[in-house]
Amino acid sequence: MPGNIQFLTGQLRTPPMPTDDLTGRTILVTGANSGLGLDAAKLLIKLNCSTIVIACRDVSKGKATEDLLRAFSSQNGKKSTIIPFELEMTSFASVVSFTTRCKDLPRLDAVILNAGIAEVEFKLAEGYEKTITVNVISTFLLATLLLPILRASARKYSITPNIAIVGSAVHFWTDPKQLTKPASGQILKAVSDRQSADMKGRYFLSKLPVMLLVKYLGSVLEKSAQQDSSGKPLVVLNNVAPGFCVSSKSPPQINRN
């Protein structure tokens, strides 16, 4: 019950619109061609973000999104530099290749890991159920590989980079047996079993390990990250739950973040 109440009351709250001046910053957004990712990119332009790296599943979507975003202007009247990178989250090789390209960026101030899917049919990707591969495994593989790049920017520019991983309050609706019943160390294998997979609740299930892994990764960063001269951590990690929203106009779809 507390989880349901928290979820419902959360839908009635509208957070204040950011007003930060992002001049000079480089920010990466995954899943940037539609929905939350696209709106995040538009907002970054409005806030004067100098360079926005948009990660899309293929080159054509990246180019189309780049063209769309060029029509938007920042508050300071300057055009943001839009850099489209290809990123296929169902492929571990694509994730690794993508982060290799990110090493060539002059700086990286923040990443918004928004890319996610909600599958209703059982499919495998990299040997795991596709929703788990994209929403959980590839997301944290990406976060882990981007950490050294963010830390390098932190040292060079005396900044505190951020990793924002999109989660969801619907993780409350996960059947805990799906994560506690498997033998120790076999959770990902168990939830990728075609015969027992509950695809109706799979999106909810995928968001629970996201929250748990954010907490774990945060504890690891807190213990292992070097400190800059001001005593701030080199990278700040957070987990955001945007709430119900319409993520496209044609056809209408609900993004359950």
UniProtKB/TrEMBL annotation:
Q: Does the keyword Oxidoreductase apply?
A: yes
Q: Which UniProt keywords apply?
A: Oxidoreductase
Q: Which residues cross the membrane?
A: none
**Superkingdom of origin:** Eukaryota
Question: What are the GO MF terms of this UniProt record?
Answer: oxidoreductase activity
InterPro entries xrefs: NAD(P)-bd_dom_sf, SDR_fam
- The protein, known as: Uncharacterized protein
Origin species: Exophiala bonariae
Higher taxonomy: Eukaryota, Fungi, Dikarya, Ascomycota, Pezizomycotina
